[in-house]
Design goal:
There is one protein chain. The protein is built from 13 helices and 21 strands. The chain is α/β, with parallel strands linked by helices and 502 residues long. It has a single domain, classed as Alkaline Phosphatase, subunit A (3-Layer(aba) Sandwich). The strands form seven sheets. Strands 5, 8, 9, 10, 11, 12, 15, 16 and 19 form a nine-stranded mixed β-sheet that branches. A two-stranded antiparallel ribbon has the order 1-4. Helix 2 packs antiparallel against helix 8 (263-284), helix 8 packs antiparallel against helix 9 and helix 11 packs parallel to helix 12 (364-388). The N and C termini lie far apart (56 Å).
Protein backbone atom coordinates (compact mmCIF):
# COMPACT_ATOMS: atom_id res chain seq x y z
CA UNK A 1 0.00 0.00 0.00
CA UNK A 2 1.50 3.35 -1.03
CA UNK A 3 2.26 5.92 1.63
CA UNK A 4 0.67 8.75 -0.46
CA UNK A 5 -2.69 7.00 -0.96
CA UNK A 6 -5.50 9.55 -0.90
CA UNK A 7 -7.74 7.31 1.18
CA UNK A 8 -6.90 7.40 4.89
CA UNK A 9 -5.91 4.02 6.21
CA UNK A 10 -8.43 4.09 9.09
CA UNK A 11 -11.34 4.88 6.75
CA UNK A 12 -10.62 1.84 4.65
CA UNK A 13 -11.41 -0.35 7.66
CA UNK A 14 -14.28 1.76 8.97
CA UNK A 15 -16.83 -0.76 7.76
CA UNK A 16 -14.98 -3.62 9.47
CA UNK A 17 -12.70 -6.31 8.16
CA UNK A 18 -13.25 -7.64 4.65
CA UNK A 19 -15.10 -10.85 3.87
CA UNK A 20 -14.18 -13.54 1.38
CA UNK A 21 -16.07 -16.15 -0.58
CA UNK A 22 -14.17 -19.43 -0.49
CA UNK A 23 -14.65 -22.14 -3.08
CA UNK A 24 -13.64 -25.69 -3.91
CA UNK A 25 -12.67 -26.31 -7.52
CA UNK A 26 -14.05 -22.87 -8.37
CA UNK A 27 -17.49 -23.44 -6.81
CA UNK A 28 -18.28 -20.87 -4.08
CA UNK A 29 -20.00 -22.04 -0.92
CA UNK A 30 -20.86 -18.71 0.73
CA UNK A 31 -19.09 -15.83 2.45
CA UNK A 32 -17.25 -16.31 5.71
CA UNK A 33 -16.55 -13.26 7.89
CA UNK A 34 -12.84 -12.82 8.42
CA UNK A 35 -11.61 -11.25 11.64
CA UNK A 36 -9.03 -8.48 11.49
CA UNK A 37 -6.52 -10.86 13.07
CA UNK A 38 -7.22 -13.59 10.52
CA UNK A 39 -7.03 -11.07 7.68
CA UNK A 40 -3.63 -9.86 8.85
CA UNK A 41 -2.52 -13.50 9.08
CA UNK A 42 -3.62 -14.02 5.49
CA UNK A 43 -1.25 -11.28 4.35
CA UNK A 44 1.70 -13.26 5.65
CA UNK A 45 0.12 -16.47 4.41
CA UNK A 46 0.14 -15.16 0.85
CA UNK A 47 3.86 -15.75 0.48
CA UNK A 48 3.40 -19.19 1.97
CA UNK A 49 0.71 -19.84 -0.59
CA UNK A 50 3.08 -18.96 -3.41
CA UNK A 51 5.63 -21.37 -2.02
CA UNK A 52 2.94 -24.00 -1.66
CA UNK A 53 1.87 -23.54 -5.26
CA UNK A 54 5.45 -24.12 -6.36
CA UNK A 55 5.63 -27.22 -4.16
CA UNK A 56 2.39 -28.64 -5.53
CA UNK A 57 3.33 -27.82 -9.09
CA UNK A 58 6.40 -30.03 -8.70
CA UNK A 59 4.80 -32.71 -6.55
CA UNK A 60 4.54 -35.39 -9.22
CA UNK A 61 8.16 -35.32 -10.32
CA UNK A 62 11.24 -36.43 -8.44
CA UNK A 63 13.26 -33.56 -7.04
CA UNK A 64 15.48 -32.81 -4.10
CA UNK A 65 13.96 -30.78 -1.27
CA UNK A 66 16.30 -28.05 -0.01
CA UNK A 67 16.92 -27.45 3.68
CA UNK A 68 17.07 -24.26 5.69
CA UNK A 69 20.75 -23.70 4.85
CA UNK A 70 21.35 -22.13 1.47
CA UNK A 71 24.74 -23.85 1.46
CA UNK A 72 26.93 -25.79 3.92
CA UNK A 73 29.09 -23.65 6.19
CA UNK A 74 32.21 -25.42 4.93
CA UNK A 75 33.15 -28.25 2.61
CA UNK A 76 31.24 -31.39 3.71
CA UNK A 77 32.99 -34.73 3.97
CA UNK A 78 29.84 -36.87 3.93
CA UNK A 79 26.38 -36.87 2.37
CA UNK A 80 24.65 -39.41 4.57
CA UNK A 81 24.95 -41.28 7.86
CA UNK A 82 24.11 -44.81 9.01
CA UNK A 83 23.89 -44.80 12.80
CA UNK A 84 24.04 -48.30 14.35
CA UNK A 85 22.64 -47.53 17.79
CA UNK A 86 23.22 -50.33 20.31
CA UNK A 87 20.48 -49.69 22.83
CA UNK A 88 21.07 -50.73 26.43
CA UNK A 89 24.71 -49.76 26.87
CA UNK A 90 27.31 -52.20 25.47
CA UNK A 91 30.15 -53.05 27.83
CA UNK A 92 33.30 -51.33 26.65
CA UNK A 93 35.29 -53.71 28.86
CA UNK A 94 34.21 -56.71 26.76
CA UNK A 95 34.57 -55.03 23.37
CA UNK A 96 37.00 -52.13 22.77
CA UNK A 97 38.66 -51.07 26.05
CA UNK A 98 41.16 -53.71 27.19
CA UNK A 99 41.84 -53.64 30.95
CA UNK A 100 44.03 -56.58 32.09
CA UNK A 101 44.36 -55.03 35.58
CA UNK A 102 40.75 -56.00 36.28
CA UNK A 103 41.60 -59.64 35.69
CA UNK A 104 44.62 -59.34 37.95
CA UNK A 105 42.50 -57.87 40.75
CA UNK A 106 39.43 -60.03 40.14
CA UNK A 107 37.08 -59.96 43.14
CA UNK A 108 38.83 -57.18 45.04
CA UNK A 109 36.69 -54.20 46.10
CA UNK A 110 36.59 -51.13 43.87
CA UNK A 111 39.03 -48.70 45.56
CA UNK A 112 37.50 -45.50 46.92
CA UNK A 113 40.33 -43.60 45.26
CA UNK A 114 39.06 -44.84 41.89
CA UNK A 115 35.36 -44.33 42.52
CA UNK A 116 35.96 -40.83 43.91
CA UNK A 117 32.47 -40.67 45.41
CA UNK A 118 30.73 -40.87 42.07
CA UNK A 119 27.05 -41.74 42.19
CA UNK A 120 25.80 -45.26 41.50
CA UNK A 121 22.41 -46.51 40.40
CA UNK A 122 19.99 -47.96 42.91
CA UNK A 123 20.62 -51.39 41.40
CA UNK A 124 24.15 -51.71 42.78
CA UNK A 125 24.49 -48.73 45.11
CA UNK A 126 23.32 -50.77 48.09
CA UNK A 127 25.77 -53.62 47.59
CA UNK A 128 28.05 -54.15 50.59
CA UNK A 129 30.99 -54.60 48.23
CA UNK A 130 31.66 -53.70 44.60
CA UNK A 131 33.92 -56.54 43.37
CA UNK A 132 36.14 -55.82 40.38
CA UNK A 133 35.31 -58.06 37.42
CA UNK A 134 37.76 -58.72 34.62
CA UNK A 135 36.50 -59.62 31.18
CA UNK A 136 35.96 -63.31 30.53
CA UNK A 137 36.98 -62.75 26.90
CA UNK A 138 40.43 -62.45 25.39
CA UNK A 139 41.72 -59.40 23.55
CA UNK A 140 44.21 -59.22 20.69
CA UNK A 141 45.99 -56.47 18.80
CA UNK A 142 44.76 -56.08 15.24
CA UNK A 143 45.31 -53.90 12.21
CA UNK A 144 48.20 -51.73 11.14
CA UNK A 145 48.24 -49.86 14.45
CA UNK A 146 47.87 -52.90 16.68
CA UNK A 147 44.59 -51.72 18.22
CA UNK A 148 43.12 -53.93 20.94
CA UNK A 149 39.81 -55.63 20.19
CA UNK A 150 37.85 -58.44 21.82
CA UNK A 151 37.58 -61.98 20.48
CA UNK A 152 33.81 -61.34 20.47
CA UNK A 153 34.28 -59.14 17.39
CA UNK A 154 36.30 -61.15 14.83
CA UNK A 155 34.62 -59.55 11.81
CA UNK A 156 35.05 -56.01 13.10
CA UNK A 157 38.71 -56.87 13.75
CA UNK A 158 39.13 -57.38 10.01
CA UNK A 159 37.97 -53.82 9.24
CA UNK A 160 39.58 -52.15 12.24
CA UNK A 161 41.80 -50.05 9.99
CA UNK A 162 38.65 -48.38 8.62
CA UNK A 163 37.26 -47.30 11.99
CA UNK A 164 38.22 -44.70 14.58
CA UNK A 165 37.53 -45.81 18.15
CA UNK A 166 36.70 -43.21 20.78
CA UNK A 167 37.29 -44.74 24.22
CA UNK A 168 36.59 -41.59 26.20
CA UNK A 169 32.93 -40.84 25.56
CA UNK A 170 30.98 -39.67 28.59
CA UNK A 171 27.56 -38.35 29.58
CA UNK A 172 25.81 -37.17 32.73
CA UNK A 173 22.80 -39.47 32.34
CA UNK A 174 22.98 -42.67 34.40
CA UNK A 175 19.65 -44.25 33.40
CA UNK A 176 18.51 -45.48 30.01
CA UNK A 177 15.74 -43.11 29.00
CA UNK A 178 17.56 -39.83 29.64
CA UNK A 179 20.82 -41.29 28.30
CA UNK A 180 19.30 -42.50 25.03
CA UNK A 181 17.38 -39.25 24.69
CA UNK A 182 20.65 -37.35 25.20
CA UNK A 183 22.47 -39.30 22.49
CA UNK A 184 19.61 -38.95 20.02
CA UNK A 185 18.48 -35.37 20.69
CA UNK A 186 21.23 -33.58 22.61
CA UNK A 187 19.15 -33.20 25.78
CA UNK A 188 18.13 -35.59 28.56
CA UNK A 189 14.55 -34.32 28.61
CA UNK A 190 12.18 -35.27 25.81
CA UNK A 191 10.74 -32.75 23.39
CA UNK A 192 13.85 -31.84 21.42
CA UNK A 193 14.49 -32.62 17.74
CA UNK A 194 16.47 -35.76 16.94
CA UNK A 195 19.79 -35.70 15.09
CA UNK A 196 18.12 -36.89 11.90
CA UNK A 197 15.48 -34.16 12.14
CA UNK A 198 18.18 -31.49 12.55
CA UNK A 199 20.06 -32.76 9.50
CA UNK A 200 16.89 -32.96 7.42
CA UNK A 201 15.93 -29.45 8.51
CA UNK A 202 19.35 -28.04 7.70
CA UNK A 203 20.27 -29.92 4.53
CA UNK A 204 16.98 -31.19 3.12
CA UNK A 205 16.64 -34.32 1.03
CA UNK A 206 18.39 -35.66 -2.06
CA UNK A 207 15.61 -38.12 -2.90
CA UNK A 208 12.06 -36.87 -3.15
CA UNK A 209 10.61 -40.37 -3.42
CA UNK A 210 11.92 -41.58 -0.06
CA UNK A 211 12.04 -39.92 3.37
CA UNK A 212 15.29 -38.18 4.20
CA UNK A 213 15.24 -39.90 7.62
CA UNK A 214 14.49 -43.64 7.94
CA UNK A 215 14.40 -45.73 11.14
CA UNK A 216 14.98 -49.51 11.29
CA UNK A 217 14.53 -51.48 14.54
CA UNK A 218 15.65 -55.06 15.09
CA UNK A 219 12.49 -57.03 15.75
CA UNK A 220 11.85 -59.20 18.78
CA UNK A 221 14.62 -57.85 21.00
CA UNK A 222 12.54 -56.22 23.76
CA UNK A 223 14.73 -54.95 26.60
CA UNK A 224 14.60 -51.18 27.21
CA UNK A 225 11.75 -49.52 25.28
CA UNK A 226 12.29 -47.25 22.31
CA UNK A 227 9.99 -44.28 21.75
CA UNK A 228 9.08 -42.59 18.49
CA UNK A 229 10.16 -39.26 20.02
CA UNK A 230 13.75 -40.51 19.61
CA UNK A 231 13.33 -39.94 15.88
CA UNK A 232 10.82 -37.11 16.24
CA UNK A 233 11.08 -33.44 15.36
CA UNK A 234 10.38 -31.78 18.70
CA UNK A 235 9.67 -28.15 17.85
CA UNK A 236 10.85 -28.44 14.22
CA UNK A 237 8.22 -28.87 11.48
CA UNK A 238 6.88 -32.42 11.46
CA UNK A 239 7.96 -33.14 7.89
CA UNK A 240 11.49 -33.69 9.20
CA UNK A 241 10.63 -36.61 11.48
CA UNK A 242 11.96 -40.13 10.91
CA UNK A 243 9.82 -42.72 9.16
CA UNK A 244 9.99 -46.21 10.64
CA UNK A 245 10.30 -49.09 8.18
CA UNK A 246 8.95 -52.30 9.71
CA UNK A 247 9.56 -55.94 8.89
CA UNK A 248 6.81 -57.71 6.99
CA UNK A 249 4.47 -57.11 4.07
CA UNK A 250 3.81 -53.43 4.90
CA UNK A 251 7.13 -51.72 5.74
CA UNK A 252 5.33 -48.39 6.30
CA UNK A 253 1.99 -48.45 8.08
CA UNK A 254 -1.09 -47.29 6.14
CA UNK A 255 0.94 -46.68 3.00
CA UNK A 256 -0.96 -49.08 0.74
CA UNK A 257 -4.42 -48.31 -0.57
CA UNK A 258 -7.35 -49.92 1.29
CA UNK A 259 -9.17 -52.73 -0.52
CA UNK A 260 -11.31 -51.37 -3.34
CA UNK A 261 -9.41 -48.07 -3.64
CA UNK A 262 -7.49 -47.66 -6.89
CA UNK A 263 -4.39 -45.54 -7.38
CA UNK A 264 -6.39 -43.14 -9.55
CA UNK A 265 -9.04 -42.77 -6.84
CA UNK A 266 -6.36 -42.02 -4.27
CA UNK A 267 -4.84 -39.39 -6.56
CA UNK A 268 -8.20 -37.68 -6.96
CA UNK A 269 -8.82 -37.78 -3.22
CA UNK A 270 -5.40 -36.24 -2.53
CA UNK A 271 -6.07 -33.47 -5.05
CA UNK A 272 -9.40 -32.58 -3.40
CA UNK A 273 -7.82 -32.75 0.05
CA UNK A 274 -5.05 -30.47 -1.16
CA UNK A 275 -7.63 -27.88 -2.24
CA UNK A 276 -9.18 -27.94 1.21
CA UNK A 277 -5.76 -27.50 2.78
CA UNK A 278 -5.06 -24.56 0.48
CA UNK A 279 -8.17 -22.89 1.86
CA UNK A 280 -6.92 -23.50 5.38
CA UNK A 281 -3.56 -21.94 4.51
CA UNK A 282 -5.31 -18.85 3.15
CA UNK A 283 -7.24 -18.62 6.41
CA UNK A 284 -4.58 -19.41 8.99
CA UNK A 285 -1.20 -19.18 7.28
CA UNK A 286 -0.19 -22.27 9.28
CA UNK A 287 3.08 -23.74 7.98
CA UNK A 288 2.13 -27.14 9.43
CA UNK A 289 -0.64 -27.38 6.83
CA UNK A 290 1.97 -27.10 4.10
CA UNK A 291 3.98 -29.81 5.87
CA UNK A 292 0.90 -32.03 5.96
CA UNK A 293 0.36 -31.64 2.22
CA UNK A 294 4.01 -32.46 1.54
CA UNK A 295 3.72 -35.60 3.70
CA UNK A 296 0.61 -36.76 1.83
CA UNK A 297 2.39 -36.32 -1.48
CA UNK A 298 5.48 -38.12 -0.18
CA UNK A 299 3.32 -41.04 0.98
CA UNK A 300 1.79 -41.26 -2.50
CA UNK A 301 5.22 -41.47 -4.13
CA UNK A 302 6.43 -43.94 -1.50
CA UNK A 303 3.83 -46.44 -2.67
CA UNK A 304 6.23 -47.22 -5.50
CA UNK A 305 9.63 -46.39 -4.00
CA UNK A 306 9.31 -48.27 -0.69
CA UNK A 307 8.46 -51.69 -2.19
CA UNK A 308 11.36 -51.28 -4.59
CA UNK A 309 13.98 -50.45 -1.95
CA UNK A 310 12.78 -53.08 0.54
CA UNK A 311 12.73 -55.89 -2.03
CA UNK A 312 16.03 -57.66 -1.42
CA UNK A 313 15.42 -60.49 -3.89
CA UNK A 314 17.67 -58.83 -6.44
CA UNK A 315 20.69 -59.05 -4.13
CA UNK A 316 23.17 -61.80 -5.15
CA UNK A 317 23.88 -64.71 -2.83
CA UNK A 318 27.43 -63.59 -2.08
CA UNK A 319 26.06 -60.36 -0.60
CA UNK A 320 23.71 -62.25 1.72
CA UNK A 321 26.64 -64.45 2.72
CA UNK A 322 28.71 -61.37 3.52
CA UNK A 323 26.09 -60.03 5.95
CA UNK A 324 25.58 -63.41 7.62
CA UNK A 325 22.96 -66.12 8.10
CA UNK A 326 20.26 -63.69 9.28
CA UNK A 327 20.48 -61.42 6.24
CA UNK A 328 17.44 -62.93 4.52
CA UNK A 329 15.20 -62.66 7.58
CA UNK A 330 13.28 -59.36 7.63
CA UNK A 331 13.69 -57.38 10.83
CA UNK A 332 17.03 -58.86 11.90
CA UNK A 333 20.01 -56.60 12.40
CA UNK A 334 21.75 -58.20 9.41
CA UNK A 335 18.73 -57.60 7.17
CA UNK A 336 18.50 -54.00 8.36
CA UNK A 337 22.19 -53.40 7.68
CA UNK A 338 21.73 -54.61 4.11
CA UNK A 339 18.60 -52.50 3.74
CA UNK A 340 20.56 -49.53 5.11
CA UNK A 341 23.09 -49.94 2.32
CA UNK A 342 20.26 -49.92 -0.25
CA UNK A 343 18.84 -46.76 1.32
CA UNK A 344 22.29 -45.15 1.25
CA UNK A 345 22.56 -45.96 -2.46
CA UNK A 346 19.35 -43.97 -2.95
CA UNK A 347 20.73 -40.98 -1.05
CA UNK A 348 18.60 -41.22 2.07
CA UNK A 349 20.24 -38.68 4.36
CA UNK A 350 19.92 -40.29 7.81
CA UNK A 351 19.48 -44.04 8.35
CA UNK A 352 19.01 -44.98 11.99
CA UNK A 353 19.28 -48.59 13.14
CA UNK A 354 18.35 -49.60 16.69
CA UNK A 355 19.45 -52.91 18.17
CA UNK A 356 18.27 -53.57 21.72
CA UNK A 357 19.45 -56.09 24.30
CA UNK A 358 22.75 -54.73 25.61
CA UNK A 359 21.49 -54.04 29.16
CA UNK A 360 23.32 -56.90 30.89
CA UNK A 361 23.04 -56.40 34.65
CA UNK A 362 23.47 -60.16 35.10
CA UNK A 363 24.60 -63.13 33.04
CA UNK A 364 26.69 -60.76 30.94
CA UNK A 365 29.03 -63.33 29.32
CA UNK A 366 26.18 -65.25 27.70
CA UNK A 367 24.20 -62.14 26.84
CA UNK A 368 26.99 -60.21 25.19
CA UNK A 369 28.02 -63.22 23.12
CA UNK A 370 24.52 -63.28 21.65
CA UNK A 371 24.56 -59.54 20.99
CA UNK A 372 27.95 -59.63 19.27
CA UNK A 373 26.99 -62.68 17.23
CA UNK A 374 23.96 -60.76 15.92
CA UNK A 375 25.78 -57.50 15.17
CA UNK A 376 29.49 -58.10 14.54
CA UNK A 377 29.35 -59.64 11.07
CA UNK A 378 26.61 -57.35 9.67
CA UNK A 379 28.34 -54.20 10.96
CA UNK A 380 31.65 -55.18 9.38
CA UNK A 381 29.90 -56.31 6.18
CA UNK A 382 28.17 -52.94 5.91
CA UNK A 383 31.52 -51.15 5.96
CA UNK A 384 33.03 -53.52 3.40
CA UNK A 385 29.96 -53.36 1.17
CA UNK A 386 29.89 -49.55 1.21
CA UNK A 387 33.61 -49.45 0.53
CA UNK A 388 33.37 -51.87 -2.39
CA UNK A 389 30.65 -49.73 -3.97
CA UNK A 390 32.51 -46.44 -3.49
CA UNK A 391 29.94 -45.23 -0.95
CA UNK A 392 32.01 -45.29 2.23
CA UNK A 393 34.01 -42.24 1.14
CA UNK A 394 30.93 -40.01 1.54
CA UNK A 395 28.96 -42.03 4.11
CA UNK A 396 29.47 -41.80 7.87
CA UNK A 397 28.87 -44.98 9.89
CA UNK A 398 28.57 -44.79 13.69
CA UNK A 399 28.39 -47.67 16.21
CA UNK A 400 27.66 -47.18 19.90
CA UNK A 401 25.16 -47.06 22.75
CA UNK A 402 23.98 -44.57 25.37
CA UNK A 403 26.62 -45.27 28.08
CA UNK A 404 29.06 -47.94 29.25
CA UNK A 405 29.17 -50.53 32.03
CA UNK A 406 30.84 -50.63 35.43
CA UNK A 407 34.17 -52.31 36.09
CA UNK A 408 32.67 -54.09 39.09
CA UNK A 409 30.07 -56.83 39.12
CA UNK A 410 26.47 -56.05 39.89
CA UNK A 411 25.30 -58.91 42.05
CA UNK A 412 27.26 -62.08 42.68
CA UNK A 413 30.61 -62.52 40.98
CA UNK A 414 31.65 -66.07 40.08
CA UNK A 415 34.42 -67.55 38.01
CA UNK A 416 32.24 -67.75 34.90
CA UNK A 417 29.46 -65.25 35.47
CA UNK A 418 28.94 -61.60 36.37
CA UNK A 419 26.89 -58.57 35.46
CA UNK A 420 27.71 -54.88 35.04
CA UNK A 421 25.68 -51.81 36.01
CA UNK A 422 25.28 -48.55 34.06
CA UNK A 423 28.39 -46.40 33.82
CA UNK A 424 28.16 -42.95 32.18
CA UNK A 425 31.70 -41.88 33.15
CA UNK A 426 33.36 -43.57 30.18
CA UNK A 427 32.33 -45.71 27.22
CA UNK A 428 33.44 -46.56 23.69
CA UNK A 429 31.98 -45.86 20.27
CA UNK A 430 33.42 -46.02 16.77
CA UNK A 431 33.02 -43.99 13.60
CA UNK A 432 34.01 -44.82 10.03
CA UNK A 433 33.68 -43.41 6.54
CA UNK A 434 34.10 -40.01 4.95
CA UNK A 435 36.36 -37.65 6.82
CA UNK A 436 37.28 -40.22 9.51
CA UNK A 437 40.89 -41.24 10.15
CA UNK A 438 40.67 -45.02 9.96
CA UNK A 439 42.70 -46.96 12.49
CA UNK A 440 42.72 -44.11 15.01
CA UNK A 441 42.12 -44.59 18.72
CA UNK A 442 41.22 -41.49 20.70
CA UNK A 443 40.88 -41.01 24.44
CA UNK A 444 42.15 -43.04 27.34
CA UNK A 445 40.59 -44.44 30.50
CA UNK A 446 42.36 -45.32 33.73
CA UNK A 447 43.82 -48.85 34.24
CA UNK A 448 40.62 -49.74 36.14
CA UNK A 449 38.42 -48.66 33.22
CA UNK A 450 36.42 -46.37 35.50
CA UNK A 451 37.55 -42.79 34.77
CA UNK A 452 38.80 -40.89 31.74
CA UNK A 453 42.42 -39.79 32.07
CA UNK A 454 42.97 -38.26 28.60
CA UNK A 455 40.91 -36.55 25.89
CA UNK A 456 37.32 -36.71 27.17
CA UNK A 457 34.57 -36.54 24.52
CA UNK A 458 31.15 -35.40 25.68
CA UNK A 459 27.98 -36.24 23.79
CA UNK A 460 27.85 -32.60 22.64
CA UNK A 461 31.35 -32.96 21.17
CA UNK A 462 30.19 -36.05 19.32
CA UNK A 463 27.22 -34.14 17.89
CA UNK A 464 29.41 -31.18 16.92
CA UNK A 465 31.77 -33.55 15.10
CA UNK A 466 28.93 -35.27 13.31
CA UNK A 467 27.50 -31.96 12.05
CA UNK A 468 30.99 -30.80 11.06
CA UNK A 469 31.38 -33.79 8.75
CA UNK A 470 28.20 -32.67 6.97
CA UNK A 471 29.66 -29.21 6.48
CA UNK A 472 27.67 -27.65 9.33
CA UNK A 473 28.94 -25.37 12.08
CA UNK A 474 27.02 -26.63 15.11
CA UNK A 475 26.76 -23.09 16.50
CA UNK A 476 25.13 -21.78 13.31
CA UNK A 477 22.41 -24.39 12.74
CA UNK A 478 19.56 -23.18 14.93
CA UNK A 479 15.79 -22.80 15.12
CA UNK A 480 13.93 -20.03 16.89
CA UNK A 481 11.89 -21.58 19.70
CA UNK A 482 10.37 -19.85 22.73
CA UNK A 483 12.51 -16.80 22.13
CA UNK A 484 15.78 -18.72 21.91
CA UNK A 485 17.95 -19.92 19.04
CA UNK A 486 17.83 -23.63 19.88
CA UNK A 487 20.66 -25.91 18.68
CA UNK A 488 21.44 -29.62 18.73
CA UNK A 489 24.47 -28.91 20.91
CA UNK A 490 22.53 -26.46 23.11
CA UNK A 491 24.31 -23.51 24.75
CA UNK A 492 27.05 -25.33 26.64
CA UNK A 493 30.55 -25.63 25.14
CA UNK A 494 31.13 -28.26 22.47
CA UNK A 495 34.08 -28.93 20.22
CA UNK A 496 34.76 -30.83 17.02
CA UNK A 497 36.99 -33.85 17.74
CA UNK A 498 39.51 -32.96 15.04
CA UNK A 499 41.94 -35.66 16.18
CA UNK A 500 39.87 -38.42 14.54
CA UNK A 501 39.32 -36.54 11.28
CA UNK A 502 41.35 -37.20 8.16
Amino acid sequence: MNADSSTPLDSRFAAGPPTRTPSIAGVPFGPIPVSRRRWLQSLSGGLGGLALGELLGRSRIAHAAPGSLSAPHHNPKVKRIIYLFQSGGPSQLETYDYKPLLNEQQGKPLPDSVRQGQRLTGMSGNQSVLPLAGSKFKFAQCGANGNWISELLPHTAKVIDDIAIIRSMYTEAINHDPAITMLQTGQQLSGRPSIGAWLSYGLGSENDNLPSFVVLITKGKGDQPLYSRLWGTGFLPTRFQGVQFRAGRDPVLYLNNPPGISQQARRIALDRLRELHELEIQTSGDAEVEARIAQYEMAFRMQSSVPEVTDLTSEPEHVFAMYGPDAKTPGTFAYNCLLARRLAERNVRFIQLYHQGWDQHGNLPAGIQTQCRETDQPSAALLSDLKNRGLLQDTLVVWGGEFGRTNYSQGKLTVDNYGRDHHPRCFSIWMAGGGIRGGAVFGETCPFGYNIVADPVHVRDFHATLLHLFGIDHERLSYRFQGLDARLTSVEPARVVAEILS
